[in-house]
Write a structure and sequence with these properties.
CATH topology of one domain: Butyryl-CoA Dehydrogenase, subunit A, domain 3
Number of strands: 0
Largest sheet: none
Helix content: over 70%
Distance between the termini: 33 Å
Radius of gyration: 17 Å
Structural class: mainly alpha
Strand content: under 5%
């Protein structure tokens, strides 16, 4: 399976930032924590290798802010995909005729959930900039829950999800943001 645009973009951003930020050879306690959080987030499978052992000087607020931006990009593209699917275009994975009503209901539910993620984006960005990490974390946790709820809706309706990759990426980006901001 090819990596999604969101995860590829995120890996590229992390790699560039790691080249730009000065680093120290000793792992600080916060660097050890972020290294552990990074290993748990499959959206960045190469994250531990990118970080290596020289992560002492990372600015977690900056990385957290970048993840918030990537989450907003993911939510925007997912909402666009949902709009297209509801209009009858887009994905090569077409539901069976008997599943169309259930799929449409799930997509409309996801449309609202991703709208909520997008609505929370500016407040989350502002909270990160103001160093109100508890507020930002709460918004990111809501975004993760929304992505999970979207995906779970397809399962509860017994239809194949057309948004598995997008939901997974949104969930992982939100959780990565939470992990980063805990060390900011």
């Amino acid at each position: 399976m090819a990596p999604s645009t969101s995860s590829t973009s995120l890996m590229s951003v992390v790699a560039v930032l790691l080249l730009l930020f000065p680093v120290t050879p000793v792992l600080s306690p916060s660097a050890q924590g972020i290294f552990a959080a990074c290993k748990k987030r499959p959206v960045l499978p190469r994250c531990p290798q990118l970080l290596g052992s020289d992560v002492g000087g990372l600015d977690y607020q900056v990385f957290g802010g970048l993840v918030v931006g990537l989450l907003a990009d993911n939510a925007t593209s997912t909402k666009t995909k949902i709009d297209s699917l509801l209009r009858g275009g887009g994905d090569s994975l077409k539901p069976k005729a008997e599943d169309n009503g259930a799929v449409s209901r799930c997509l409309r539910s996801c449309q609202l959930l991703y709208g909520g993620i997008l609505d929370g984006g500016p407040a989350c960005t502002a909270a990160v900039k103001a160093k109100k990490f508890g507020d930002a974390t709460a918004i990111l946790e809501k975004a993760a829950a929304a992505a999970k709820e979207c995906e779970d809706g397809f399962g509860k309706s017994n239809v194949m999800s057309l948004l598995t990759a997008e939901d997974g990426n949104a969930f992982e980006l939100a959780k990565l943001g939470v992990g980063l901001l805990r060390f900011a």
